[in-house]
Write a structure and sequence with these properties.
Length: 382
């Protein structure tokens, strides 16, 4: 999973690995960079080889022509893991996912991708709609699915969901394990350096526009879309536990939808936090629902200038009760989408926009056929 140089216990190991590779390729033109690197090692001392930046940069540029049968050293940093399956614990995974390059310019051609992260219990009944959505946009997206560990996905090799399942654990509604699963999705997706935007979805979600509109919208936005608001009612501030002070003051307490879209910077904040996480784990128990407060509060405190404070995922609460409406076959029509899409208004990069919601939930499996039928006329799929 991690680049091999991480496994080197000290500079000597690392040095030995480079050396053996050098002899295998056995080309005289490698000799000069080898000497340069070797003298560098002697000069700086082996502890510098602990630092990925120093070790990688000279070797990738100098050794590249010599080892063209093997992937370049830089490739091992840039290429996503070939398999999503791994045995890292959450602690190990979150650590590995929290690396952020300090040099902001990527030294290779990077096409930013959108990570679509599906938090599900089992099957994805709307997958045919998503297959249609992704078609023709290869290289611009990646998919991650977290489901109950007991569920075994069975997608054919030609499916976009084939082998996109990540190592998962049991999650329960209203429990911190739900936030763990979200962090697990983010962390697995962060391991692919090309992923720039991260969207949390469920098996009942659908896209409201075609891929190119959604991609352009995310790419052009100066903010991440996380709903985060303050509300004096018992359902918001009423769930604050004064024991959280002084770490979290009531004035910092926020509520918001679980369904978010964040960029790489914000995603890293979410994965690396342990301090606020602990406070929520201990002090936010039903009727405090951790998935409605943890990220909205954390990101309000740590990254308030980076978030738009609104979600891009529509949920219909108009029917009342503690669960949102579910739409089935009978609900789906052109009129239905007109009602959703027309007359939207929100701020996008500080300006009024009529595109505010990019995804919607909750849709029952029975909605699939009418959705496929309307996909090209109403949702702009081609
Ligand atoms: C993962 O597997 C490796 C080798 O198979 C083992 O050494 C390591 O302890 C495992 N890690 C976890 C977290 O299970
Ligand atoms: C979350 O689930 C775990 C394991 O089932 C349980 O021990 C814990 O009390 C639950 N926490 C809350 C807040 O319900
Ligand atoms: C979101 O709210 C925070 C604090 O309440 C504010 O600083 C920030 O500017 C808001 N974001 C946008 C895009 O308006
Ligand atoms: C978005 O942010 C960039 C960089 O900070 C800035 O140059 C640009 O003007 C911003 N765009 C809008 C529409 O606010
Ligand atoms: C943006 O929307 C607000 C609220 O509807 C309105 O008051 C304002 O005039 C609009 N601004 C522009 C530039 O259209
Ligand atoms: C996406 O939808 C928009 C609006 O419906 C349309 O103009 C555009 O051609 C569509 N793009 C693709 C690639 O289908």
């Amino acid at each position: 999973m991690l680049p091999r140089i991480f496994q080197a216990e000290d500079g000597k190991d690392f040095f030995f690995k480079l050396q053996s590779r050098f002899f295998i390729s056995s080309l005289m033109k490698c000799f000069l960079p080898f000497v340069l690197l070797a003298s560098g090692a002697l000069f700086f001392g082996s502890r510098y080889f602990d630092s990925p930046q120093i070790a990688i940069e000279p070797s990738s540029s100098l050794f590249l022509p010599c080892v063209n049968k093997e992937p370049s050293v830089l490739d091992r940093w840039v290429k996503p893991p070939s398999s999503l399956m791994h045995n890292m614990s959450d602690e190990e995974l979150f650590w590995a996912a929290s690396f952020v390059p300090q040099v902001k310019k990527y030294p290779f051609h990077r096409v930013p991708k959108v990570a679509f992260m599906f938090l599900t219990t089992g099957p994805l009944p709307l997958s045919p709609l998503w297959e249609k959505f992704f078609k023709g946009n290869e290289g611009l997206y990646s998919i991650y699915v977290h489901s109950l560990p007991s569920y075994k996905a069975n997608f054919p090799p030609e499916s976009v969901f084939y082998k996109r399942q990540i190592p998962s654990q049991v999650t329960e509604w209203g429990n911190i394990s739900l936030c763990d699963a979200e962090k697990r999705l983010l962390a697995n997706a962060l391991l692919d350096l090309s992923n720039e935007w991260f969207i949390l979805l469920s098996e009942t979600c659908i896209p409201l526009y075609n891929f190119s509109i959604i991609y352009t919208y995310l790419k052009g936005s100066n903010h991440s879309f996380v709903e985060s608001f303050d509300d004096p009612s018992p359902h918001a501030r009423g769930r604050y536990n004064p024991e959280m002070a002084p770490l979290i003051d009531i004035s910092q307490w926020r509520k918001g939808s679980q369904w978010f879209e964040v960029d790489r910077t914000v995603a890293t904040h979410m994965v690396q936090d342990t301090m606020y996480y602990l406070a929520f784990k201990v002090f936010c128990k039903p009727p405090c629902y951790v998935d409605e407060h943890y990220f909205p509060t954390l990101l309000h405190i740590e990254t308030s200038s980076l978030i738009a404070n609104r979600t891009i995922t529509l949920t219909d609460w108009s029917r009342g009760g503690s669960h949102p409406a579910t739409f089935g076959e009978a609900d789906i029509s052109e009129e239905f989408f007109k009602r959703i899409l027309d007359g939207q208004e929100c701020l996008y990069n500080g300006k009024n926009s009529s595109i505010c919601l990019l995804f919607a939930r909750k849709f029952a499996p029975s909605a699939l056929q009418p959705l496929l039928h309307l996909a090209s006329t109403v949702l702009g799929f081609t």
